[in-house]
Amino acid sequence: FGGGEHLVGQASRHPDVGFIGCEPFVEGMAKALTGIVEHDLGNVRLVMDDARPVLASLQDQSIARVFILFPDPWPKKRQQKRRLIQPDFLEVLHRICRPGAPVRFATDVKSYADEALWRFLQHGGFSWTANHANDWRCPPKDHLTTRYESKKLGDCDPVWLDFVRS
């Protein structure tokens, strides 16, 4: 969850919903904890780890919504096998998401946007909800901009890919 801005903001907007945030780095964990305390949020649980083992431990159809926002793009060709959106990850994601659960993937790296879209569609268990170009070019109405996103470190404008678990 990076610095946790999106996580804290969503949890503040939806106090009746439980949130799980995964972050392997202590700096991000500290920033999220600060936001959680400042907003007195009791609906957030944090796990200081990569999301993959956390998701693998969850029960079938236990998740109602997923945000995957600006994950490490591993831009070098030899590193791209480390990207989060891989067939095994999508199998786990499909297993834990309830039918109809929205899944949002966002990136500002063109090759990752292309690859992620292809992998989600190849999986077959997720439907892409886009009807118009602005559906992936414009931030969704419920999006909260993060510091990382504001830095514009990628090679393209942010791409918003919204899916629904079939």
In a nutshell, what does this entry contain?
The protein has seven helices and six strands; from the N terminus they run H-E-H-E-H-E-H-E-H-E-H-H-E.
Explained architecture:
The chain is an alpha/beta fold and 166 residues long. The chain has 7 helices and 6 strands. It has helices spanning 5-13, 26-38, 51-56, 87-96, 110-123, 134-137, 147-151; strands at residues 19-22, 44-47, 66-69, 102-107, 126-128, 159-165. The strands form 2 sheets. It has a 4-stranded mixed β-sheet. The longest helix has 14 residues, at 110-123. The model has no long low-confidence stretch (mean pLDDT 95).
Task: Show the helix and strand layout.
Layout: H1 5-13, E1 19-22, H2 26-38, E2 44-47, H3 51-56, E3 66-69, H4 87-96, E4 102-107, H5 110-123, E5 126-128, H6 134-137, H7 147-151, E6 159-165
Parallel strand pairs: 1-2, 3-4
Antiparallel strand pairs: 4-6, 5-6
Notable traits:
single chain, 166 residues, alpha/beta, four-stranded mixed β-sheet, two-stranded parallel ribbon
- Rounded to the nearest angstrom, the distance between the terminal CA atoms is 25 Å
H and E order: HEHEHEHEHEHHE
Portion in beta strands = 15-25%
| Individual helix count | 7
How large is the radius of gyration?
15 Å
Question: What is the tally of beta strands?
Answer: 6
